[in-house]
Amino acid sequence: MTRRTLDRRTFVQTTAAVGATVALAGCGGGSGGDGGDGSDGSDGSDGSDSDGSDGGSGGETLSEEPNYDGFLDDVSNYDGTVDMRDADEVTVEVGANDGLTFGPAAVAVSSGTTVVWEWTGQGGDHNVAASDGAFESDTVGEEGHTFEHTFEEAGTYTYVCTPHEAVGMKGAVYVE
């Protein structure tokens, strides 16, 4: 029997392949207690004071979508802009679903509305950074951490999680 020695290149390639396999294993979704459809598997009758946000759409979407110029094309949970124009305050989850999305990905609010981003504790360290530099939170991973911004002017505001932008962790706030 011959004994093979493991050189550095083989070790690095093998470790990278195993790491990629493990990372992708969590991306399949469909089981693990969630509804497999972006929901949390519950019927929503838990008696909580939730705003309806489950990391998916969470409510009615606008009948006519704002033009995001393709910004949300690679966002896995974007299926329309959730209409929250009647709320004074709106909560968006940071680290929703698979831990690498904002939930909901896009919301419509009225001017003067405060958006509160609340960390789920999933997916590692995240931040909320406006594409135009208008606001930026600290990068943290602790469940329950919050960051807020009040949108006074009508317009379309896009933002990202800087550490996870490349995997599509992006969101938008449409202000009327």
Automatic annotation (TrEMBL):
PROSITE patterns the record matches: COPPER_BLUE (PS00196), PROKAR_LIPOPROTEIN (PS51257), TAT (PS51318)
GO molecular function terms listed in the Swiss-Prot or TrEMBL record: copper ion binding; electron transfer activity
Swiss-Prot/TrEMBL cofactor(s): Cu cation
UniProt GO cellular component terms: membrane; periplasmic space
Signal peptide: none
Residues given in the record as Cu cation binding sites: H126, C161, H164, M169
Domain called Blue (type 1) copper: residue spans: 90-176
SUPFAM superfamilies per the UniProt record, alphabetical: Cupredoxins
CDD domains referenced in this protein's UniProt entry, alphabetically: Halocyanin (cd04220)
Keyword Ligase: no
Keywords noted in UniProt: Copper, Electron transport, Membrane, Metal-binding, Periplasm, Transport
Gly residues bias (residue ranges): 26-41
Co-factor remark: Binds 1 copper ion per subunit.
Keyword set includes Membrane: yes
Designated name of the protein: Halocyanin
Species of origin: Halorubrum salipaludis
Taxonomic placement: Archaea, Methanobacteriati, Methanobacteriota, Stenosarchaea group, Halobacteria
